[in-house]
Amino acid sequence: SQIYCHGELLRQVQMAKLYQDDKQFVDMPLSSAPDQVLRHFRELAQTHNLSIPRQELQMFVQEHFRAVGQELQPWTPEDWRDSPQFLQKILDPRLRAWAGQLHQLWKKLGKKVKPEVFSHPEQFSLIYSRHPFIVPGGRFVEFYYWDSYWVMEGLLLSEMPETVKGMLQNFLDLVQTYGHVPNGARVYYLQRSQPPLLTLMMDRYVAHTNDTTFLRDHIETLASELDFWTKNRSISVSSGGKSYILNHYEVPYGGPRPESYSKDAELAATLLEGNRDTLLAELKASAESGWDFSSRWLVGGPNPSSLSSIRTSKLVPVDLNAFLCQAEGLMSNFYSRLGNDSEAAKYRNLRAERMAALKDVLWDEDKGVWFDYDLENEKKNLEFYPSNFAPLWAGCFSDPDDVDKALKYLEDSRILTYQYGIPTSLQKTGQQWDFPNAWAPLQDLVIRGLAKSPSAKAQEVAFQLAQNWIRTNFDVYSKKSAMYEK
């Protein structure tokens, strides 16, 4: 889209900072056809010798764009019930009441796309979805890729498999249309994806419903999503005289992110012109990782505290490769279940190859955990991140002792001394995916990774970490009547 993705209209409006948040403009539907809007814009630009005054731009936007959210309508999930069974299992009456209030939120977060988006997709940045969905809330009125996995876990706990099935179908439609799952359901997110959890979403749904027909109908679409990562995000890594294929986040497109245009453009302007597109592509790769932004992607650069040094694509992330390893294992199971032994064997072999690479390239025997690998500096990034535990969560390790070693690493890093949750890192950079912030998905990576272990000590630590996180969120909710993003 020459309006929502790139072009002079987008540049002028975003650099004029008409709104506090750049995302607001690119979420506004058009009042008329895009060619008409662009023609009027060009006429206005010519009148002002290509530099339109702020007030004139404001009037232009008011005339040609509509308010955010008009293309969506509220939706109450049809499978929502008042008292799902999990509530009865919560013995503490205060915690049960809180969980009951959270269960009510599904009705507030449900959205449905209006038919006009289907009829006139060119007038919207929102991508049409056939089925209703749950949104994160706040400034995010569309659905996102990796967030939706945890949303679906919650929906299944709330006994709402039909809502999950509809959301899954939306993701599968995106893969069939675009060849991958975009970062979120907006045209300006199409250049990048997010952590690949679609296969896991299908697994959770099928485990809950036993809907093998749905799996059979869509197994090829799941395969083509994994192909996207193989074809577009693979990298060869050498270790101990051997060569391995692993994956990294990489978005081979320059230009500022439309939803953060002015920030990206201003940061790029601090660099020499020849380095700007590389920076902008790295910012997008970081957004693809879900960790936008973090010291994880700044490490090893000339200035590890500045975003201008970001180098996401130069790192081989533990979590991405654990997610893909898990997906390959699930695909093998799916194909076995459907009676396709040759495809099952193919994915079993892919998983085995990745397991070997995780061990040989990312595992650190001295520290007893996995670390991201820096391709340029040819060494591991030995900093603490909860993502270091992703292979435990994904079940992608073969030595049972790895759990105890990872537990010792958790203790040695003094992570168990943090009473309010597992910090995202131990580095204070001012970025949101760093200390002192704690994020729910990362708690899950560590807690569930430990809880699945047969080790009694690991289960005990997992329980304590879960208690800490629940207590923190309960205390905040009691004071603020809100759940915080982080």
Automatic annotation (TrEMBL):
Superkingdom as given in the UniProt entry: Eukaryota
Substrates-to-products reaction catalysed: alpha,alpha-trehalose + H2O = alpha-D-glucose + beta-D-glucose
A Gene Ontology BP annotation from the UniProt entry: trehalose catabolic process
The enzyme's E.C. designation: 3.2.1.28
Keywords for the protein's UniProt record, in alphabetical order: Glycoprotein, Glycosidase, Hydrolase, Signal
GO MF: alpha,alpha-trehalase activity
Protein family membership: Belongs to the glycosyl hydrolase 37 family.
Function statement: Intestinal trehalase is probably involved in the hydrolysis of ingested trehalose.
Protein name per its UniProtKB record: Trehalase
Organism for this UniProt entry: Bos mutus (wild yak)
Lineage, opening ranks: Eukaryota, Metazoa, Chordata, Craniata, Vertebrata
